Amino acid sequence: MNGHSVRGGDKRDRILQAAERVFASKGFYGAKVSDIAHVAGVADGTIYLYFRSKDDLLISLFEAQMDRVLAELRGAVADGEDATEKLRRFIAAYLTMVEANRHAAEVITIELRQSAKFMKEYRNPKFAEFLKTLAAVIQEGQQQGRLRAEVPAPIAARTLFGALDELALMWVTSRGERFDIRKVADWLGDVVLKGLELQRRQA
Amino acid sequence: MNGHSVRGGDKRDRILQAAERVFASKGFYGAKVSDIAHVAGVADGTIYLYFRSKDDLLISLFEAQMDRVLAELRGAVADGEDATEKLRRFIAAYLTMVEANRHAAEVITIELRQSAKFMKEYRNPKFAEFLKTLAAVIQEGQQQGRLRAEVPAPIAARTLFGALDELALMWVTSRGERFDIRKVADWLGDVVLKGLELQRRQA
């Protein structure tokens, strides 16, 4: 992904990769479809063969990123032995993914919320799926008597997502040297698990 | 604040109260300055004597709400005996304030991020002040050896803010019966403190 233009891959993917870069550097409002076409190395009109509008491009980028998030979450869930281990793995996977996909994280934490279409009309099935999967892990821990159950799992899941999302936003917007997001992930994993656990694990 | 129009108080306050209601019901993009003038009981042109634009109205609303948040935070800091007590009081005060100022919370969690001017140009000194005050409480606890110190206090403060902000967003957008935000505040206070504390308090 170095250099000015995006080559290789199928056209739709090239346009998405170009859009991610252009939105991250110029912002959603500042980006023109012609800028994206230029970086993707396609004619302006070609973009409209794949995407209806700039909002549609942004939402498609978000969906591609949510697919990655969901894959990471499902991987963490599959590998973890119990609910607390699954949560810890997921927190680490989420923040590592932000680090590895900085442009995508920028687009999602900053630009996406400026799309009126996204905020008002888009039903966001992938985000709902993500929250449902995360809540299921927490509920599993609650049912096993391992995690606090005063608050329903979907609320606990949203709270954890809020913490992760704000950390991602802080990391992508920090000027100068960025903080060590993996160290923060370890800390957050400890804080969340120590805070939520009803009994400490026997080693 | 019942009934259709806003009466009493000075004109600037009336316009701000009207804007809060109109933004919450029609959204920032959907709201017209003339709607706000109608609810405030002033002529359309009067609004421009106090505010330069619709974006300026939104930012002024945000600043009024941040003044309330800062006052609550400073109250919690003044009343609490130690850092953990201060944090617990602040979490409760923040979520109680969301409950008591639903329209303001809606405007801030949903509408504000759609203002390109707010996201791009506004330097947001009050939010910076809020985060600084919250970080100072956490740092106090770290220096006393009461709270985990692996992560700098400003990062811990942002993480806590993210959790609170997402809970506020979930609460204001929930359909049907809203969850008990005070109960959630107690839970979050417990989770954060148990998670962050290095040693349990002696009762």
Model description:
The structure is a homodimer of 203-residue chains. Chain A has two domains: 1-51, Homeodomain-like (Arc Repressor Mutant, subunit A, Orthogonal Bundle), CATH 1.10.10; 58-196, Tetracycline Repressor, domain 2, CATH 1.10.357. With 203 residues, chain A is an all-alpha fold. Chain A is built from ten helices and no strands. In chain A, α4 (54-79) packs parallel to α8 (125-143), α5 packs antiparallel against α8 (125-143) and α5 packs antiparallel against α10 (181-196). Chain A has helices at residues 11-26, 33-40, 44-50, 54-79, 83-100, 102-111, 116-120, 125-143, 153-173, 181-196. At the A-B interface, α7, α9 and α10 of A face α7, α9 and α10 of B.
What's the short version?
By secondary structure, chain A is an all-alpha fold. The first copy, chain A, has helices at residues 11-26, 33-40, 44-50, 54-79, 83-100, 102-111, 116-120, 125-143, 153-173, 181-196.
